[in-house]
Every structure is written in C-alpha cells, then in structure tokens.
Design goal:
about 250 residues, single chain, 9 helices, Metallo-beta-lactamase, Chain A
Length: about 250
C-alpha cells in the first residue's frame, strides 16, 4: 500500500482561533491536506479539501465565512488537480472517507461520483442544521452511496486502514490510522489536531464543538503517537512543508 499526500487548498485565519492566547491580529497560514491510499483492494481518498471555485469567488460559495476563513490558493490548487498529477482521475477513486463535513474537508465530494463514501453518523445528523456555519449542503448532500460509521472501522479487514472516531472538533470527526510496510503507522488526525501546538499544549481551539470530547480524543491521539505512529495534523504548515507530496509516496 502507498500513501500520497495531496493539497486540498490553502486558507488564512486568525491564529487566536487555534491558540486563544495569541495576539488577535496575528494570522496563520493553513494548508488543507488530502491523502490517497493505493490499497490492493481499491483506491481510498481521505478528505476532498476545498472546492476549486473558492479560489476565485469564495463568497459566492461560502458567504460571510470567506471573510474569516480566507482562501489563499491558486485556481489549480485542489485535490482533483493533485490526482491528475499522479495519473488518476476522480473516477479512479473507490472509497472516500470524510473526516467530517466542514467545507474545507469535503468540498470536492461531488467530483467523486463513482466512489462509496464513509462518514460518521453524527456528521450526517448535525450538518443539515448548520448550513453556512462551516457546513454547506452543496458539499456533502449528493445522491451517492454512503456507508455510515458508528464506531471504529477496519476498511478492508486487514488492519492497514482503520477509521477511528475522534469527536470534539465536531460530533462525528473521524481520523484514519494507516499502517505502511516501510514507513510505519500514520494517524491522520484531521481537525482533532488542526496544528501541532494543539497536541503538545493544553490550548483548546475556539472552533471546538465539545471541549471535553476533544480532550479525550487528544489523549487517545497521544497514546497512538507514543507507540510510534506519526500524527498528521489537519492544517499544520511546518509539518506540511516536511511531508513528501504528490508522486513521492510513502510505502
């Protein structure tokens, strides 16, 4: 199995959203990451990133949210373009796992019309009532096959890709634990750990749905990290710059 790291866009936000003690004027640059797994039983995509349209007219798709979560990306900086650079098209994806339904994690779902989708039941329950508050029906509400997760799920029954509930940032956030033969274990934590400082410190981001649940999820993430897994944050620029990307895969 191989893991390819792909860009799903880039955003600018106020740093105090993630580190509440920061200067209120400080800005933070947030890469949006997606991950392709070439598993013997199918191609799996973890998150689909931002929709391409937000690079040109973000308020047309996001409304006022685009003023707080500002796209700082080119028009070709999205997961579909990233797949094309390694010779794949959306129809080559068999399974899409959405960590959660915030718009920067499922914005390109509609492109993957041949895929089966996996998402936690709590996200499906929450999303319809929060239109415009990070959730947009155009991102996630498609007539596509959906496998609803309730708990931990081994995608192919071989321990290589395991979806893990990590609630707190949202009710139904899931991470993906990937076991690679040479590169070892990677825990894709999504926004359970938006930036590395949220894992190493005690600060709870302001965009947290339930702080108690998030702290429990962080405890579990630290436990998995302590056994040797690489914890990959949802939006950490320093870590993003260190990761291999595109065709330069982990195996």
């Amino acid at each position: 199995m191989k893991m390819h790291v792909l860009s799903g866009g880039r955003l600018g936000m106020k740093q105090h959203i993630f580190l509440p003690d920061s200067d209120r004027d400080a800005e933070i640059d947030l890469p949006v990451s997606c991950f392709l797994f070439r598993h013997p039983q199918g191609n799996v995509l973890f998150d689909t990133g931002c929709h391409p349209d937000i690079a040109g007219e973000p308020e047309h798709r996001w409304g006022k949210l685009a003023r707080a979560m500002v796209p700082v990306m080119d028009t070709d900086d999205h997961v579909v373009a990233g797949l094309g650079q390694i010779g794949l098209a959306p129809d080559d994806i068999d399974v899409v796992v959405n960590s959660h339904f915030h718009t920067d994690h499922c914005g390109c779902n509609a492109f993957f019309s041949k895929a089966a989708f996996m998402v936690h039941a709590a996200e499906l329950e929450r999303a319809p009532g929060l239109e415009g508050q990070g959730y947009f029906r155009d991102d996630w509400d498609h007539a596509l096959p959906t496998d609803v997760l309730e708990g931990e799920r081994d995608l192919f029954g071989d321990g290589r890709l395991v979806a893990l509930p990590l609630p707190g940032h949202t009710p139904g956030l899931v991470g993906l634990l990937a076991g690679l033969e040479r590169s070892g274990e990677f825990l894709l934590a999504s926004d359970a750990v938006s930036i590395g400082a949220n894992l190493s410190g005690e600060a709870v981001p302001k965009n947290t749905w339930n702080a108690d649940l998030l702290l429990k999820s962080l405890t579990e993430i630290r436990r998995i990290g302590a056994r040797g897994a690489t914890v990959v944050c949802g939006h950490d620029l320093e870590q993003w710059n260190r990761l291999k990307k595109g065709a330069d895969a982990y195996d």
